[in-house]
Specification:
This protein is α/β, with parallel strands linked by helices. It is built from eight helices and nine strands. It has helices spanning about 15-30, 50-55, 80-95, 115-130, 145-160, 180-190, 205-215, 235-240, and strands at about 5-10, 35-40, 70-75, 100, 110, 135-140, 170, 200, 225-230. The strands form two sheets. The protein has a five-stranded parallel beta sheet with strand order 2-1-3-4-5, with helices on one face. A four-stranded parallel beta sheet has the order 7-6-8-9. Helix 3 links the parallel strand 3 and strand 4. Helix 4 crosses helix 5 and helix 6 (about 180-190) packs across helix 7. The longest helix has 16 residues, at about 15-30.
Length: about 240
């Protein structure tokens, strides 16, 4: 009898979040004498249609009949229609247990990262230690599960400290990446967006993008703007200045 196989479906496997999660999956699977098959595209999203079409064809090679279980990293499947394609294939071709991580589909088991309390504590750090009252929450799209969790933590921190929730200090344009977050920072610097006391980012890549935009414009962090990130990636530690995360 051959070893059992777990299939992991995701995008951009080498990215920090995906790499850490895969390391955990593989460590536990090997302890239980399972093999792990990883099905991944090289990028999470692309504005080039030809690239997206080519990347999505990678998932056509999955033979669900050869798997004993499937893990879907739903939050990484960002290419248009990709998540729907995977769900459709699972409905039609998959007859083994399936678990979705940071996303859900029908009545399949779902596991979500519990970010609410840590993000509340991060926001409280800005309030209690730095005396901030106007804190910009910067994230990617609201429909992302991690955004909703972290926004809930942000709101709890404000409520706990008697700070009124202000929609002007909530922004979903950060794209979870450097460039989009830099655009938001530029809008603050040049008065196109209300200036907060601090910016709390739902990811370190966004925080790094904000810091670099301030530096590019001759400003300093934290003197001119306090910035915090989330995820604790190595790049945030080595950023100058190092980013609280």
């Amino acid at each position: 009898m051959g070893r059992k196989r777990i299939g992991v479906i995701l995008s951009e496997a080498e990215s920090y979040y995906q790499e850490r999660l895969l390391r955990g999956v593989m460590t536990k699977a090997f302890q239980l004498d399972y093999d792990v098959l990883i099905f991944t595209s090289f990028v999470k999203e692309s504005f080039l249609k030809a690239v997206s079409v080519g990347e999505m064809q990678i998932y056509d090679v999955i033979n669900y009949d050869k798997l004993d279980g499937v893990i879907v990293l739903a939050d990484t499947l960002k290419m248009p229609a990709l998540f729907d394609k995977i769900c459709r294939d699972i409905d039609e071709k998959c007859h083994v247990p399936v678990v979705f991580i940071d996303g859900g589909y029908k009545d399949y088991e779902s596991i979500y990262t519990r970010d609410e309390i840590p993000f509340m504590q991060l926001t409280e750090h800005l309030i209690e230690v730095h005396g901030c009252r106007k804190i910009l929450f910067l994230s990617g799209p609201l429909e992302t599960a991690t955004t909703r969790e972290r926004l809930a933590g942000y709101k709890r921190a404000l409520e706990k400290h008697g700070i009124e929730y202000d929609p002007d200090f909530v922004c979903f344009d950060g794209g979870f990446w450097y460039d989009k977050a830099a655009e938001v920072a530029n809008n603050i610097i040049y008065g196109r967006r209300k200036k907060p006391d601090a910016i709390v980012c739902c990811g370190d890549y966004m925080a790094i993008g904000v810091v670099h935009e301030y530096q590019k414009n001759g400003l300093s962090v934290p003197e001119d703007m306090i910035v915090a990130g989330y995820d604790a990636i190595d790049e945030a530690i080595h950023c100058v200045p190092a980013i609280t995360s």
